[in-house]
Design goal:
Elements lengths: L4 H6 L4 H29 L4 H23 L13 E3 L4 H9 L4 H24 L7 H24 L4 E6 L2 E6 L6 H20 L3 H4 L1 H15 L6 H5 L18 H29 L5 H20 L5 E3 L1 H10 L4 H16 L1 H8 L3 H23 L9 H18 L12 H4 L2 H17 L4 H16 L2
Antiparallel strand pairs: 1-4, 2-3
Helix pairs in contact: 2-3, 2-4, 2-14, 3-12, 3-14, 4-5, 5-11, 5-12, 6-11, 6-16, 6-17, 6-19, 7-9, 7-16, 9-16, 11-12, 11-13, 11-20, 13-16, 14-15, 17-19
Length: 466
């Protein structure tokens, strides 16, 4: 008897399988989840223990936001296998706020809370953009998402970023990262990649489903043997700590930071549209306008929760979309368990420190597989697009991908444009989305929501037979 595609999202797996599958999602997103509080905490000059609290608060809020998205509350939550994490789209604006003495951390929290409320209000309007996203647009966006993420995976495999920021004599500057591209790190990343590929080829059943987790565990063991993975922070971290709202004081509300963060919220929501459509394709459960509205409201509510619990704006993490494609496990209950694990890590700093000690080179080997799967999903959607009789679709894809690559290959390309536009221009995903929508409307006109849903359903049905 064949299980219907929609049942796969609601499938309840045994706890013995849910725990490692949920932990696999946590490990995939952990590096990205803790990066933003580290960056903002250091920019504000917070004490190490305060930065550690920011990380715990972030993990705790990640868990709450994920549960809101996956379990759902009335009118909120898309109820698909989604993991929520702090968006990098907000880093630039928040660094500017951190540099302004009159704004600071409390002003950042005020702008985050206001942006979350704004997101809740505008989610139904943003969800009505579904007719603008036929398969030629959706496939292009998802392809660019995967290609954009490859930069993250490659840098993880290299050991971080090629340059690091340090403060010398009170002045921040960029310096080469001495750990980047070390042979030991590259070897570990390659080892993880080969283990994952071997398990996918020769593993059976559950072993193949947790191939990424087993690859990360194997890579961590090798990194420990080679002296790359250390446990000093684990030994120093306490076993338990509470995360309470307004730990740093009551939020402050300033008009310009609020408006800036609301713009970031729109960027995040448009990117989320692409993530949700990708998940709909991967899980075989096409999303409609109501589904999109609930998912976008969860982005807004998650951001609002983030401001209350001393952290930052939240969005659906695209690397976990890739993991769903790699494992083939489409049950949302897996990410529910992942959210519960994140909650626990936020309350158990020692366990959080253990997960945080996994080197980026280990995650890099896994990232190359997962992020490539996102790009492959976009390419698969594009196979259902009519390029033979409608050659204009070729131009939609070609030009949109080109614009999406600008922030990747030329990060300073837009540096002379107004600073207020940078949150929009620094996201290759958003640029690709805007250009694809505009070119599709120019060449093909605008369809109805019903037509967009039918096309999305057809693509998903075709994907089931691939």
């Amino acid at each position: 008897m064949t299980t219907k595609p929609i049942d796969a999202v609601e499938e309840r797996l045994p706890l013995a399988k849910l725990l490692p599958l949920g932990l696999q999602h946590v490990l995939v997103m952990y590096a990205g989840a803790v990066a933003v509080p580290l960056i903002i905490g250091r920019a504000l000059g917070l004490k190490p223990e305060e930065v550690a609290f920011l990380i715990s608060a972030d993990l705790f809020a990640c868990g709450l936001a994920t549960l809101v998205q996956c379990v759902g509350v009335p009118g909120v939550g898309i109820r698909l296998p989604v993991m929520m994490g702090v968006t990098f789209a907000a880093v630039g604006p928040m660094l500017s706020m951190a540099a302004a003495p009159e704004v600071g951390l409390l002003g950042i929290y005020g702008s985050v809370i206001a942006a979350g409320a704004f997101g809740l209000l505008v989610a139904p309007f943003v969800s009505r953009l579904l007719p603008l996203f036929p398969p030629v647009v959706t496939g292009t966006i998802i392809l660019v998402i995967g290609i954009s993420l490859m930069r993250v995976g490659i840098n993880w495999a290299g050991g971080g970023l090629p340059t690091v920021t340090r403060v010398v004599d009170g002045v921040p500057g960029s310096f080469p990262n001495p750990q980047y591209g070390q042979l030991a790190g590259l070897g570990i990343a390659l080892f993880v990649l080969l283990v994952i590929l071997a398990l996918i080829k020769w593993g059976r059943g559950f072993v193949a489903n947790v191939a990424v987790l087993l690859g990360i565990v194997a890579g961590s063991i090798l990194a420990t043997i080679l002296g790359v993975m250390h446990f000093d922070r684990v030994a120093r971290a306490p076993w338990f700590d509470l995360v309470l709202p307004f730990h740093f004081g009551m939020p402050q509300f300033h008009l310009v930071p609020i408006l800036t963060m609301c713009v970031v919220m729109v960027v995040v929501m448009i990117e989320s549209l692409g993530m949700f459509l990708a998940l709909g394709d991967i899980t075989g459960k096409p999303v409609n306008q109501d589904d999109l509205a609930r998912g976008l409201r969860a982005d807004g509510l998650g951001t609002f929760i983030g401001g209350l619990f001393n952290t930052f704006p939240y969005t659906s993490f695209s690397q976990n979309v890739g993991l769903v494609g790699v494992t083939g496990v489409r049950s949302r209950h897996v990410t529910v368990v992942g959210g519960l694990i994140m909650l626990g890590l936020g309350l158990l700093p020692k366990m959080a420190a253990l997960v945080e000690s996994v080197p980026q080179v280990v995650l890099g080997g896994a990232g190359l597989v997962m992020f490539g799967m996102v790009a492959a999903t976009g390419a698969r959607i594009l196979t259902a697009v009519d390029f033979r009789t409608n050659t204009k679709n070729l131009f939609v894809v070609a030009v949109s991908v080109g614009f999406g690559m600008i922030p990747l290959v030329a990060p300073t390309f837009f540096r002379n444009l107004p600073h207020a536009l940078h949150p929009l221009l620094e996201s290759g995903i958003l640029l690709a989305a805007i250009v694809a929508v505009l070119l599709n409307a120019f060449f093909n006109g605008l369809g109805s929501a019903e037509r967009a849903s039918r096309e999305a359903s057809a693509v998903a049905a075709a994907a089931e037979h691939v």
